[in-house]
Amino acid sequence: MEVDVMKQQVIGEVRAGGPIGAVTVSDSIRDTEVGVIGQQQWEEICRRRGEGQSISAIARDLGLDRKTVRSGLRQPTWAPYRRETVRVSLLETHMEWLRERAAQVGYSARILHQELCRDRGFTGSYELVKVAVRPLRADAAVASVTQMRFETAPGEQAQVDWGQVTVRLGEVSRKVHVFVMTLGYSRRAYAEGYLNEQMPSLLAAHENAFAHFGGCCMTVLYDRMRTVTDGTTQERDGRLRARLNSTFEAFAEHWGFQVRLCRPYRAQTKGKVESGVKYIKRNFVPGRSFNDLEDFNAQLMGWQAEVADLRTHGTMHQRPIDRFAEEARALTPFAGQRSFLQAMVRERVVAEDWMVTLDTNRYSVPFKLIGKTVQVTREGGQWMIRYNGRVVAEHAVLAGRLQLSVKPEHGPGAAMRNQRQRFAEPLSRSPVAKPADREVEVRDLAVYEQLLREAA
């Protein structure tokens, strides 16, 4: 009943030309010409009629004339309104752009006309753009009134998002980036904290979530985060779509799921995971203290198992862990499949300081490989660096940024020392050697530079 009252209030605002959310409605729906309805309006009219609602009730609820409702019901398919064929033809090549851009500028025909003339060579009038924008604005108004929660079948979709919380890790206040993946059907979630939202963190978090659930959904929904898209668009199926980041696209192909993106400025379509992020911020974080990031994640994992999975969900009115029993059978299993991070081979050219860069950190390799191309793979917590198929260096993966891992035996000083020891006279076996007989060890200067950085 309360929802119906709210709908009536919003429809009243639409009739009066008032704003709806972030959409500026400068013209009322009744100001549009008779018979002008958007696609979402037409679909809503057909849906309500199919449920047995009368034409008068549909017209009253949606703020339309009864003749418009009858006209819409007579149409087998929806078709956009065109006032003058000659004038509208000027916009035909710009309509896809117009639909994408209109929501971003609040359906302002004035702004759209200016941009069309300035950037796209449009020669038509402002009135032509104004008429074309009216049904788009009306669609947005109706969508905001009739928006319904989108439910998915078991294993059909998961949603992913990041949340940020500021907590104390030991004696230092740090911002922790919390990765959250929520399964659409059961609402069971996986969360893990990281110090950044970079690609390695995103991919590792996905693989940890897949292991936690025992598989993956067919599709995963994201907003347009910079690690998922590369910021450009491409035309596919007659529409402009965001181009995926090549690394993330390869990751999705490796694990066999499809990437879905929220429409621009419609992030509410992934509301399930956003609710999960808010739940962590409000229920897990308050009143807790953490020794370090590892302790943060240990407590978070325990909270998920003991609290989040066992609560009665406010929307589903069931425990996520109980609904997950049904969803688990529909997930794509990954038992025995190799990690993408470990399968991915990264090529690096050895710099003049005999170092290679991996995820902003630098690692040493034998200096004789300066200028050579080496292959790097991650195996567990180790970087394995190979040249011509042979392992030439191993390093533990550094957790931070802009750090240095140097092994003295990789430097030129080690080669000179080994050569001297090979051709030197055997040392006396006397228990105490004379000072003149002691050999001074030669160390590469990079070792001292690293010690100075750690001391600072």
Anisotropy-based shape: globular
Query: How many domains, as an integer?
Result: 3
Distance between the termini: 66 Å
Instruction: Say what the CATH topology of the largest domain is.
Output: Nucleotidyltransferase, domain 5
> Which architecture of the largest domain per CATH?
2-Layer Sandwich
Say which CATH homologous superfamily of the largest domain is assigned: Ribonuclease H-like superfamily/Ribonuclease H
| Poorly predicted runs | 9-34, 84-88, 427-438
Strand content: 15-25%
Over the alpha carbons, how many angstroms does the gyration radius reach? Answer: 31 Å
Strands of the widest sheet, in order across it, are 3-2-1-4-7
Number of E strands: 14
Which CATH class of the largest domain is shown?
Answer: Alpha Beta
Order of helices and strands: HHHHHHHHEEEHEEEHEHHHHEEEEEEEHH
Helices, by number, come to 16
Share of residues in helices: 25-40%
The biggest sheet, with number of strands, parallel, antiparallel or mixed sense and barrel status, is: 5 strands, mixed
- The secondary-structure class comes to alpha+beta
The residue-averaged pLDDT reads 80
Would you mind describing this structure in some detail?
The termini are far apart. It is built from 16 helices and 14 strands. It has 456 residues and is α+β, with helices and mostly antiparallel strands. It is globular, with a radius of gyration of 31 Å. The protein folds into 3 domains: 2-146, no CATH class; 157-330, 2-Layer Sandwich (Nucleotidyltransferase, domain 5); 345-456, no CATH class. Helix content is 39%, strand content 19%.
